[in-house]
């Protein structure tokens, strides 16, 4: 029987990164993946394909709406070739997943294709093209998540779809109805809106992206409405029915009235749930909690001492970079090191345009914790860089401790905020004050100047350019 120091079940960003780190630390490692390609949700049906489509649709929108203003004339009408767009996306996915195969080989990690099932705490049965049993001193569960279902909605994967199908549609919907105004709904909604679909979002809470700072929800809502999104907050969906190619969604509004929406596709994006099917966790003594997640302690150790769990399958934000941090953390823990993760400083990003990004505490969280804070905000439209690229929407907001000036939260919406947020993460990791940032040189003209200006506004209410 093949014996390993560590077996990793699941090859998403949590699993493959933990496998690499274990190998770097001198362990003999196996990774088990049930699908034919490595990379999990993120690389196959998540982060990478969605960003590829966001980029393609952004180019299309620029060509249709903005080229003329820039003085670029096209010989004829600009058209979408959806087949080609999807092929490019798939090419990006294929290159990326093959890259993981390369990394596994480079690090001498044995890969097994098949469903990994615990026989006991140290033995795993793998059922794939061939059936094989392996032995592992330690196992890392990184089995990820699946789209959450609404009990009264039958997802038929043709017209009533999840993100997985939305990433490979063969036609542009005429009217896409999206249940859930969270990250997936808004990112994929924007893809199809740019390509010409009418898009209606139905959100249960009183604002879109409800877990982020309220000011971001408000600004994004404003911008999406300008882009002709139809957004219905405080609406509880009660039924979704299909009649051939027509979809009827019924929801209850704040007043208790029934509102109907008719479209040709319905995307259900109401969150994701931990995935443990087929794992036979109980045979290994691994406890699953009432939310279906693998229960872990502060060391990400499960109720079985030699088994750890990371990523979407445990509590916390369902983000690729969170899964990666946990993968490294567990590998180093197994190697006897004392690693650390600062969960407060895991940034969250929505890749709409303008991009939305956030790290640390929201104003709502500071208020409810009774922490005295000051806030400095700077609008993107006041930047020279924004005017040059015509990306005028959005702002940067810095929240700092009222007494010490330590930065407690940074919330931004605007062009390239997905990248800008890294400055805030670094600053907060070093426990910088708003004044520290305000005294650092930021290249001109860049979008980063909004961070410096927001820091000036937070420290001494003395932004320079408003
Ligand atoms: P996963 O990536 O889900 O991987 C788990 C793997 O385990 C899967 O490949 C699965 O097949 C395998 N598996 C499960 N059970 C078994 C078993 N018993 N045996 C063998 N293999 C098994 N996050 C971001 O940070 N940024 C983004 O831009 C972003 N965009 C997203 C867009 C979409 C449309 C979606 C759906 C998600 C997005 N996410 C994004 C979330 C991100 O994909 C997840 O947080 C991340 O993939 C979680 O990684 P993971 O390693 O925990 O699990
Ligand atoms: P989400 O939690 O971001 O949003 C789901 C939304 O659906 C919420 O706003 C919620 O209030 C709403 N909702 C729930 N039940 C509803 C109902 N019955 N009717 C109407 N609205 C309802 O989840 P998601 O957008 O499905 O994404 C799943 C996960 O994938 C997220 O945790 C996210 O972190 C991750 N993801 C991340 C990125 C990124 O980092 N850019 C992109 C896509 C997905």
Features:
33% helix; 14 helices; FAD/NAD(P)-binding domain; binds flavin-adenine dinucleotide; single chain; 466 residues; alpha/beta; five-stranded mixed β-barrel; Enolase-like, domain 1; five-stranded parallel beta sheet; binds nicotinamide-adenine-dinucleotide; globular
Question: Would you give an account of this structure?
Answer:
The chain has helices at 13-24, 40-45, 47-66, 82-106, 163-166, 183-194, 214-226, 281-284, 320-334, 363-369, 384-389, 417-429, 434-438, 449-460, and strands at residues 2-9, 29-33, 110-120, 123-128, 131-141, 145-147, 160-161, 175-179, 198-202, 230-232, 236-243, 246-252, 258-263, 265-268, 272-274, 307-309, 348-350, 355-360, 373-379, 395-401, 407-414. The model has no long low-confidence stretch (mean pLDDT 97). The protein has 14 helices and 21 strands. The strands form 5 sheets. It has a 5-stranded mixed barrel. It folds into 3 domains: 2-147 and 273-341, FAD/NAD(P)-binding domain; 160-270, FAD/NAD(P)-binding domain; 345-460, Enolase-like, domain 1 (2-Layer Sandwich), CATH 3.30.390.30. With 466 residues, the protein is of the alpha/beta class. Helix 1 packs parallel to helix 9 (320-334), helix 3 (47-66) packs antiparallel against helix 4 (82-106) and helix 3 packs parallel to helix 6. It binds flavin-adenine dinucleotide (FAD) and nicotinamide-adenine-dinucleotide. Flavin-adenine dinucleotide binds at residues 9-15, 32-35, 40-42, 46-47, 50, 115-116, 142-145, 163, 184, 275, 278-279, 311-313, 318-321, 323, 351. The site of flavin-adenine dinucleotide (FAD) has 37 residues, from helix 1, strand 2, helix 2, helix 3 and strand 3.
């Amino acid at each position: 029987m093949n014996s390993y120091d560590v077996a990793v079940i699941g090859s998403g960003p949590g699993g493959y990164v933990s496998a690499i780190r274990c190998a770097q630390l001198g362990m003999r490692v196996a990774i088990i993946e049930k699908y034919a390609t490595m990379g999990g949700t993120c690389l196959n049906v998540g982060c990478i394909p969605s960003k590829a489509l966001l980029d393609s649709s952004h180019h299309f929108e620029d060509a249709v709406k903005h080229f003329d203003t820039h003085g670029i004339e096209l010989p004829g009408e600009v058209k979408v070739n959806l087949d080609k767009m999807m092929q490019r996306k798939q090419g990006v996915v294929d290159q990326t997943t093959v890259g993981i195969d390369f990394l596994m080989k480079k690090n001498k990690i044995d890969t097994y294709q098949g469903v990994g099932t615990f026989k006991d705490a140290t033995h795993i049965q793998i059922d794939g093209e061939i059936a094989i049993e392996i032995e592992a001193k330690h196992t890392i569960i990184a089995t990820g998540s699946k789209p959450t279902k609404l009990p009264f909605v039958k997802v038929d994967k043709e017209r009533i779809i999840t993100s997985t199908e939305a990433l490979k549609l063969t036609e542009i919907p005429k009217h896409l109805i999206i249940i859930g105004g969270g990250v997936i709904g808004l990112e994929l909604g924007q893809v199809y809106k740019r390509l010409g679909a009418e898009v209606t979002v139905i959100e249960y809470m009183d604002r879109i992206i409800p877990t982020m700072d309220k000011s971001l929800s408000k600004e994004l809502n404003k911008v999406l409405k300008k882009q002709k999104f139809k957004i219905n907050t405080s609406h509880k969906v009660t039924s979704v029915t299909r009649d051939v190619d027509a979809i009827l969604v019924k929801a209850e509004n704040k007043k208790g009235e029934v509102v109907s929406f008719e479209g040709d596709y319905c995307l259900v994006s109401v969150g994701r749930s931990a995935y443990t099917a087929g794992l036979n966790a109980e045979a290994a003594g691994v406890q699953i909690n009432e939310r279906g997640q693998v229960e872990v302690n502060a060391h990400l150790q499960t109720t079985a001492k030699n088994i750890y769990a990371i990523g979407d399958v445990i509590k916390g934000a369902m983000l690729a970079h969170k899964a990666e941090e946990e993968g490294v953390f567990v590998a180093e823990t197994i190697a006897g090191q004392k690693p650390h993760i600062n969960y407060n400083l895991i940034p969250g990003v929505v890749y709409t345009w303008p991009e939305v990004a956030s790290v640390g505490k929201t104003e709502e969280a500071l208020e409810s914790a009774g922490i005295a804070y000051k806030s400095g905000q700077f609008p993107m439209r006041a930047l020279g860089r924004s005017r040059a690229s015509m990306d005028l929407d959005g702002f940067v907001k810095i929240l700092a401790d009222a007494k010490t000036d330590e930065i407690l939260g940074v919330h931004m919406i605007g062009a390239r905020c997905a990248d800008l947020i890294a400055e805030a993460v670094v600053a907060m990791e070093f426990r910088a004050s708003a004044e520290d940032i305000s005294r650092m040189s930021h290249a001109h003209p860049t979008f980063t100047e909004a961070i410096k200006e927001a820091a000036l506004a937070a420290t001494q209410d003395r932004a320079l350019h408003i």
